[in-house]
What does this fold into?
Amino acid sequence: MRKADRGRSGPTAMLKRQLGSVVSTSKIERFRTSFDGSKLSFLPDAVVNVRETSDIAATLALANEFRVPVTVRGGGTSLTGSASPRRNGWVLDLSRLNRIRIDAESGMAFVEAGAVVAKIQAAAKRKGWFYPPDPASKDYCTIGGTVACNAGGMHGLSYGVTRDYVLALEGYLPTGERVRWGRPLFKYSAGFNLRDLWIGSEGMLGVVTNIVVRLVPLPPARLMIVAAFSSDTDAFRAARKLLAARLSPSVCEFIGRNCMRCLDRAAHNMLVFSHYRPLLLVELSGERPDVNARALLLRLWASSNAITWEEAGTDSRAEEFWAARRGVSGSLSVFGKGKLNQDIVLPRANYAAFGRYLECLEAESGLPLPVFGHLGDGNLHVNVMYDPDKPQSCRMAEKTVGQLMKKVVSLGGAISGEHGIGLTKSQFLRLEHSEPEIAAMRAVKRALDPKGILNPGKMFEPFDLSKHRRVVASMPWDGA
Ligand SMILES: Cc1cc2nc3c(=O)[nH]c(=O)nc-3n(C[C@H](O)[C@H](O)[C@H](O)COP(=O)(O)OP(=O)(O)OC[C@H]3O[C@@H](n4cnc5c(N)ncnc54)[C@H](O)[C@@H]3O)c2cc1C
It folds into this structure.
């Protein structure tokens, strides 16, 4: 607990008196919320397990009065440290605010911020609707967290990302006033669009409590093809051809050569079929006649570009492949404990040039660099694997990430497509943004959060990863 916050009169004691058992200062609770998927840990002084939105108002009022840092937490799956309470203070855990209501007539979901994304998708599906944003962490991450990070996923290529579905947000400004941005309407143009400013603001500009998202009709037909290639670069080239052919696949996922070595028996069928070669997983969806027409061209593409390919004849066979794809991230622990996960974005024209560069970088660094991700929208997860117990390996891993980021920007790409900046990418923000751009962002932050209490120490302040060891903890999604 911070020095200034000991005893019966400190702000944490006041918070406890006001909110009662909702506030926990137990060691276990503080440790549980001290880190996210990045495993960068900073102990908070207290955790507010929010039951009613009024708990948030009370917390923010006290936090502003005493300048206590507040970090909002959803599912804690962030891979950047954005949910780790960098400056300690209080964690607002919103995971219990999780009601879901589907309005089947309007095709909208009215959800609380702590609702888990997979549960929203399941509720929508029961009423014949589809909520497309589908991060691989969807069984664990909350809709509030995905709004704060503008999360994407496998369907990004044809369906877009979280931002494309949010109609309205409700919540609190960092100063504690309740606000609504947007309305449950399909069109809205009244005033500045602060709804979109909140989306992707990584919990630094407001606390989201309620969200209205639009849904789309469930596509009646789907068809999936898995194709294997002789090298990652060959798969990149083939993907570029596929995307240029205007077949409008709804999904085009990539699993690189190194990742295939990590997949376990759950992915047995995929491994047998591909002989551990890099894969593209392609899905078409839509009305049956349209899917059938495009399927002919997709089969032609597979026959002329892949070494071997398979069409998933049934939904359950397709789900086997998708489950294996979702498990890739967790399976990389086969390479060892240390992983620096990146989520870079590339322009299509430079896919193959990037593939060749990665081969050189892997040889030069001596570190495995398994790659997988959403090749359809150019968003690739490059993972720098290292041994955290060996200082030389740690230094090489950081150097490699730095080289990678510079190359990505020089190829016209972006340092993050969906995870955001948080702590782990804060040192690269200036590769992507000029000083006037960063000054403009900071001015927005100051205007909405004059006391700087909401999620401080992130994004703009370069964070030195080499000075922080990650906690050893097993998360539910590790090794999934
Ligand atoms: C195995 C694995 C696979 C992943 N795959 C993907 C993927 O395919 N696509 C993708 O985009 N991401 C992916 N991620 C990253 C992560 O799941 C997303 O960033 C997700 O959006 C985080 O949601 P969360 O509820 O866990 O948020 P948290 O981790 O709890 O928080 C993330 C950020 O959002 C803020 N926040 C949370 N809730 C709120 C709220 N209600 N109001 C304001 N701010 C809030 C936090 O302060 C923090 O800054 C993956 C992570 C893992 C572990």
